[in-house]
Amino acid sequence: MKYRVIGDTMPAVEIMFDAPGESMYTQSGGMAWMTDGVEMTTNTKGGLMKGLGRMFAGESLFMATYRAQRPGAMIAFASTVAGRILPVDVSATGGMICQKGAFLCAEDGVDLNITLTKKLSSGMFGGEGFILQDISGHGMVFLEIDGDMVEKELQPGEVLKVDTGNVVAFDRSVRYEIETVKGLGNIFFGGEGLFLTKLTGPGKVILQTQNVAEFAGRIARFIPTSGN
User: Fold this and answer.
1) Is 147 left (phi over 0), alpha (psi -120 to 50) or beta?
2) Are 64 and 25 in contact (CB under 8 A)?
3) Strands 131-137 and 149-154
4) pLDDT digits over 50-73, tens only?
5) H or E segment at 213?
């Protein structure tokens, strides 16, 4: 297969299949457009328990698989918010850990599983849930970046503290924890919430400049309620 990322503000990735049998999968409803010659099937992809695990990670229970019936068939998957689409060759990287919502689509050889942070408190209080997504296998996966992308290469022992909603993905070698903001004044008046994500190297970290949860919260303030 071949691919190209198109668009700047709300990008999409177009997949051009080279041969019959090549396939891509995504969450239900993730497809934007496609040509004739692509067959769609919907299932839990890996069984019911694996599907339920994806639900806890913020994805859908069912996955839609799109399989080419002839050479030259094309399908596109579009981002849901303004930002960019990041292609990742899982075979070359050895896999990554991603936050929920980062997964857009992948080749059939890519496995999408759930993984738990080592500390239960990280999930219960970290704001993004203690279940993350483990991407492994072989082939291409496409991640959705909200806003602009920033890459950091952490050295052994180097620490980066991030608002949890700004974390997209990181290498398996990076340690992930949740740290409590210190000081009552910072907690009540700092405006950054109670917790920060603590990432410790070595390894690559991918960040996004927009936190969709915070953005949605600001928009919600302007939505009239039934009482108004």
Assistant:
1) left
2) yes
3) unpaired
4) 656 556 555 566 789 999 999 999
5) helix 212-220
All structural domains of the chain = 2-220 (3.60.160.10)
pLDDT tens sequence across 117-139? 655 444 444 444 456 888 999 99
Sequence-distant (≥ 6) Cβ neighbours of residue 45 within 8 angstroms: 25, 51, 62, 63, 65, 112
Rounded to whole angstroms, how far apart are CA atoms 26 and 79? 12
Within 13 A of 205's CA, how many CA atoms are on the CB side?
A: 24
User: Contact 110/138 with Cβ under 8 angstroms?
Assistant: yes
Contact 226, 219 (CB under 8 A): no
Ramachandran angles phi, psi of 34, nearest 5°: -160, 160
pTM value is 0.82
Sign of the four-CA dihedral 82, 16, 140, 39:
positive
**If we measure between CA atoms, which residue out of 207, 203, 149, 152 comes closest to residue 175?**
203
Integer-rounded Cα radius of gyration of the chain: 19
The H or E element containing residue 154 is strand 149-154
| 91 φψ region: left (φ > 0), alpha (ψ -120 to 50), beta (else) | alpha
Q: What is the DSSP letter of 155?
A: P
H or E element at residue 159? strand 159-162
Tokens of 201: 């190297």
